[in-house]
Amino acid sequence: MKLGASLIIGGALFALAIFVGLFAPWLAHTDPVMDANLINAEEPPSWTWWFGTDAQGRDIYSRVVHGARISLTVGIVSQLVNSVIGVTLGLTAGYWGGWWDDFVNGLTNLMLAIPSLIFALAIMAVLGPGLTSLLIALGLTNWSFTCRIARASTLSLKSQGYVQAARVLGYGDLRIMITQLLPNMLGPIIVIGTLGMGGAVLAEAALSFLGLGIRPPYPSWGSMLSEARDQITTAPWLSIFPGLAIFLTVLGLNLLGDGLRDILDPQSRSRRT
Amino acid sequence: MTGPPLIEVEDLRIDLTVGPSRVAAVEGISFRIDRGETFGLVGESGSGKSITALALIGLLRQPLSIGAGAIRFEGREIQGLPAAEQRTLRGNRIAMIFQEPMTALNPVSPVGRQIAEMFVLHKGKNWREANRLAVEALASVRVPAPERRVNDYPHQLSGGMRQRVMIAIALACGPDLLIADEPTTALDVTVQAEIIELMRNLCAERGTAILMISHDLGLVANVCRRVAVMYAGRIVEERGSADIFRACAHPYTQGLVDSLPRLGSRAALGRTRLREIAGVVPAITNFPEGCRFNPRCARATDICRTTAPETTLLGAGGLVRCHHHA
Amino acid sequence: MHEPAGRPRDDVILSVEDLAVHFPVGGGLLGGGRRLLRAVDGIDLELKRGECLGLVGESGCGKSTVALSILGLQMPTRGRIVLDGQVVTGQQSLDRKALARIVQIVFQDPYASLNPRQTVRRTLEAPLRLHGVTTQSEIEERVATMLRHVGLRPEQADRYPHEFSGGQRQRIGIARALILNPKIVICDEPVSALDVSIRAQIINLLLELKETLGLSYIMISHDLGVVEHMSDRVAVMYLGRIVETGHWREIFERPAHPYTRTLIAAIPDPLRRVPLATTKGELPNPLSPPDGCAFSPRCRYAENVCHREPMPPLETRPDGHAVRCWRANEIAGQPALPSN
Questions:
Q1: Which CATH number belongs to the domain containing residue A67 in this structure?
Q2: Does the N-terminal or the C-terminal CB of chain B have fewer CB atoms within 10 Å?
Q3: Neighbours of chain B (3+ CB pairs under 8 A)
Q4: Which residues contact A48 (CB under 8 A, 6 or more apart)?
């Protein structure tokens, strides 16, 4: 029961976020940036303004809907970059061993020793704010867990008969890694990736909140929170709705990750067959 | 001398719960082991030999459970006993050793302490006395330099030494029955030979009965006085070990013996094609109707495909379950 | 017809000369002595065309390391391996692909040896493509033929490994080993992970394939019954060395080395009830082998010379039976198996 529930709830929340992001222009009532009208400033939520309006009279609902695009883009793209880096490093380190393994291990330990948000902060400080810098900063700083998992899986899979057999059949190293090792470690990699996406959404919010990510007036959930900081007592809806969006998306991704772990875990699979 | 047997299993059925349904992994199992007797259960994977042993020692866990039948230890029904009494029975009277001693030993505790624990737990000794007994126990399983070895951790010992430690733990409290589940499968043949001799001698000295579970016909024939062959959850033949593989009554037993490349047979008879048992071992969830061996049996007729055979008594206390037994 | 000395003879498809594989062990930060594990310590082997050579010994004796060296998966420390007239060790070594077309392996564990995420078809087709077979019809034809050879139906090709039983998986493993038409197949304990009632099927299959496809086998096993049944010649290894080798009949009927006798006596037979243990103790630590003959601490025939002098060199009799033992002549002639 637990297995199905977290997968379904998590999947539904994530699907909703994706749907909102994809169809933002059709779902939004107004343009999130241009449609400012001081006459409507700081309206509380109502039938006209579902989530209320901000100090410039912009519709919060429309901004949250558009913010989904940015938050999810950052989450998905940066995690993809992380996964590719982590898998590449972990797989090659585990397979080849030797000095390359030592080097990758050292690098991974270094990354794990420094909180990734601090690292991302430093990169953002150098590159300056903006979507591209966000993708670079978050995409380069959170691959260490994936790398660890990929390396550990490689080490245990490497001694399996079918990997040995592939070598005996004359497969090259690259072909063995791609056709024999990678497909058999995808399960845990996907789980880590899903959880990492949640982390990236949070990190984007944090960086934008600190003013280093997406700059106003463009709506990202983090930058909206940042702008709403001063009015948290007078106009709480300004922070509640973007905060809720972050909370639900990250919750959804975490539940999805847990649910996927339950099905992709090789142990639970062998128990069922 | 006419008291109840040490352990008696009567019409035992073990259920396996798969999702909403239940299947009988083992059924109609009956056998008895007398005091000091050596009894073997032979079978392939899925035959149910290991779960039968787990049922005897009360270690069946979900999704397995006893569905019917009785297990009596010295005439007393085990299942009816309160949990505390079952535990005492388990440590004191019935002991078990497993295939892989590494997983059965605690990796972070010296082996001497693990043996001593048995004396403290089940015999109420103090640690000082228990440690002394642990050294003696190690010596009794022929571990060299036992007073030094007690301080070793399991990973410092070889597979054979670990299995000796397991035997020392199992025999610490002087049990009446030792259940050995594939005790030497993970070991080399020369080490296996030594462990088997050791088990045989120790148990004979102390009057401990052995229930040995194995897939190796040769091993069981060499250790046990009586042997039961299991196939797909049922005992198909039970005889004295001197006869069972020599004059097999059940076609499955015969098939197993014929399919073995026995040492010396090529020299005597030349290389003949081994007789195969056709087909595959059925899965627990997919046992055939009627006699479960019928799809692989050369003697099978219509009745075998519809009706499960009853037990037939043979001479000299043997029994067989086959419509067309020899 | 005179072959120049040193050239491999035509009927020999594999020769291993003075092969040694040593691993450095230990050392590290605390400066503990870095010791040498002599996994294989100078062995010679010859495999003739169409022959099955049994390689036996306890775990840790080095038989698997020999196999890995022949397969090119383990770099030897010294020695020479000549496969089908081509030297595969050292600089002139064959590339992996060329080696793959000469020698293949069947693994012990039919569960771990098949990629769970590949269908049988993919497992068999990919090596063909890799080795330059490009015509789809030829690929399909060869896969179907191979499946029939190993007793599977071609229509089973699109299934995944978990849909097969242990015996069928081993058949798939054999098909994969044979798909490139190798000349030599190393069988590494090919039946010991299988159910007893299935073993005969696989043993018979391996022997049939050897005849129909003209293969040569190296049969690695601890099950001497299987080795006796399948082998033409047998080599017995102990602590990285060959202690006895010869025709199967010589080895099993007139074993000359005490270790061989121990191994044979230790096999329990269903029809014979005898004492199994004829030695004491276990394999010594290969990092600190005993003084004298390596088997002497366990040997019931050992006397002074055995504890003092290292194992003598392999002494070959005219019939090809070779043994390394100080007391071989005294021991030989006694029956190997205790009488019934």
A1: 1.10.3720.10
A2: N
A3: C
A4: none
